[in-house]
Amino acid sequence: MVAEALPNSHEAPPVVLGLQPAALIDNVAPVDWSLLDQIPGDRGGSIPVQKDELEHILKELDTHVTAAPLKKMAGGSVANTVRGLSVGFGVATGIIGAYGDDEQGQLFVSNMGFSGVSISRLRKKKGSTGQCVCLVDDSGNRTMRPCLSSAVKIQADELSKDDFTGSKWLVLRYAVLNLEVIKAAIGFAKQEGLSVSLDLASFEMVRNYRSELRQLLESGNIDLCFANEDEAAELLRGEEEAGPEAALEFLSRHCSWAVVTLGSKGCIAKHDKEVVQVPAIGETIATDATGAGDLFASGFLYGLIKGLPLEECCKMGSCSGGSVIRALGGEVTPENWQWMHKQLQLKNLPVPDIRNL
């Protein structure tokens, strides 16, 4: 399969690079329990589906009366994080991956490019672009069903050192099917002096592929790791101490920075011997939890890039994560970026100098 790279206009290297092997379009819809009851698997989780299952769910959504229409946008954890850093914090970001020569692929490229993310490291390939259905219940919880089995994606041997030269951070999401390209990217990143951030993806991924994940963490190549409460529980399942604090301690033995997000209870984080606990920001009832962890990572990384103390990094993350749950989908609206900037001002945190919000 021939990959076609997008042209590079001799841009400066992005500060933060995201690796998302397969481009992804999110189909986000508010639903009620009657539809969720028809979808196999745990509510609130993320389970891969085949193309016919995806099409079946989308067809059901067409006939399912909801208060809001289906929203389509570039998605995927890494895309959400780098887009958030670009739009909400003014950090130069780029994304590495592949997209198909279809309508979804074009939508992904245009959405990321419009958001200021460098798309010169995206490869166009013949085939289909990944899609995900994000079903949001009236409590704001999202159930995700990604379809990536037939999607084009970038391979390990398509990466080069030049993709990483001059950048400072590489953002990754754990996925066992992408382990080869993840390890290749980490190898180049370390050669080029980048720090590496890893998100644990989902509790199902941690549960089913825990040994591979532990090996990755124990390699010593992961500088920053994000886990939510459910992923943290799976990481230490069966052990005597398996709560968020124990998971934080485990992660901090292998990573310079470790963060466990606790939903409405905020987060705990550790760097060296310092441990902080930060409450959630704002009193918003989540409209949609999609992207909350991804945007938390945007804010936390911004804090690290700016050299802020650990507690302030957590507060930046909490404000950023709180901004995305106020509307459907993993892309923050201009109004909600303004809400976040107001929260930063109220807490005497640095407000990014962003135009056109």
TrEMBL record:
One Pfam entry name: PfkB
CDD domains per record: adenosine_kinase (cd01168)
Keyword match Glycoprotein: no
Domain Carbohydrate kinase PfkB: 56-329
UniProt KW Transferase keyword: yes
Single GO molecular function: kinase activity
Domain of life: Eukaryota
Coiled-coil region: none
SUPFAM superfamilies assigned to the protein according to its UniProt record, in alphabetical order: Ribokinase-like
Keywords, alphabetical: Kinase, Transferase
Family per similarity comment: Belongs to the carbohydrate kinase PfkB family.
The name this protein goes by in its record: Carbohydrate kinase PfkB domain-containing protein
